[in-house]
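Appendix B. Chain record.
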Amino acid sequence: MDAAQIRLLGPMLDRFLAHFHDCFRRRPTREHLAGYVRGLLSDLPRKSAEPIALGQDIPVRTLQEFLALHRWDHPLMRDRLQQLVARDHASEHSVGVVDDTGCPKKGDQTPGVQRQYCGASGKVDNCVVTVHLGYAALDFHCLLDSDLYLPESWAADRPRCQRAGIPEALGYRPKWQIALDLFDQAVANGVRFAWLTFDAAYGAKPGLLRGLQQRQQRYAGEVPGAFRGWLKLPRLTDRGWRGRPASTVADLARHARAFTGQPWVAYRVKDGSKGPMVWEVKYVRLYPQNEDGEPGPPVHLLAARNALDRAELKYFVSNAPARTSVKTLLLVAFTRWRVERCFEDEKTELGFDHFEGRSYTGLIRHQRLVALTHLFCARVCERWRGEKPGTDVLPGEGRVECLGPVVGADAGGADGGAGEGRADHSADTGTQRRGTALPQPRNAAKVA
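Structure tokens predicted for this chain:
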């Protein structure tokens, strides 16, 4: 960034914030929007209301009331943000990413705080957890929305909720239900996702997969090894389904001949900071077990192990059309790092986890102002990189490369066998969705 570009940032920010002026009825309240966003963009070590106010010679109490008490329409701010993304960053191959993050907090007054697993500290900690919906298209990514995960202990204590300003209608919802609610809101504002992806904690919830299927939303996400299903559809009789009980995907990967009869095929998923990330993959079709214990519609099942640490195994399922390539499924499933990058940027640069109030409204408004600020940064970066929005490719398209079957002592399955199943992953050369242009696999004899 040169001096001329730095001088342009102020006018660019003013034009960007003008999109949100109708969220504020009164001009003094509207002026605090620019002050708060500039504080988030500053080099302050803490970016809560008090240091932002002191850094801009604003009464501290005034900025605290701006977050928690002043009348302005923060749901409309979310809608405007999503409408901007839908208008300016639409892509036929966009990927939505569902994830949650925790912010460690002291005390017991912050809305939703309790001892629970916190991803930021990697352990059970006293923290607040929020669920988020991210958006990725090409090298552009941002957070579209967030909402508080209200633990059951909080939901059952309505006086405590009332003291924190939590609406009476807001009760306990599992994280996967919050994710579906965020998805529905974004779609209502015109955002369209070609794909949705998620981690194993969300993939373990049949309600999420069923909800996405009902919404006709394609997904490719991780599931735990305990996820159950059948490789062969059981028989339906007048007494119900008959056949072997459903098996876990971990057991299928270890023992089923459809897996053990094919070699691992190596794919370079992307180039990381420490070099190329290579995962070795086996592929089958699976009939997943639904909440009633019955088989659901067939899905893709990928078992993937890290080429540098073969004890690290991941399992992915997708409801994409049968001829969708393995490379496309991997590309979508490994796009989840985009939302993690959003969390990292917003926490380290924009004060996402610096909120210090005791108000639910203040918490939600702070997170939406951070998301708005992050969107501004993402738009500036995209503009100055000179990329063309709307290019018809998936995020990171062309970075997944098939390296061919793995050879060596550990190339086969649990029994060391090879030769059956989808060893050549022929779906890679099948008919692609219209507009998808993936690189063709290299010589299958190439050794990973």
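Further analysis of this model is presented in Appendix C.
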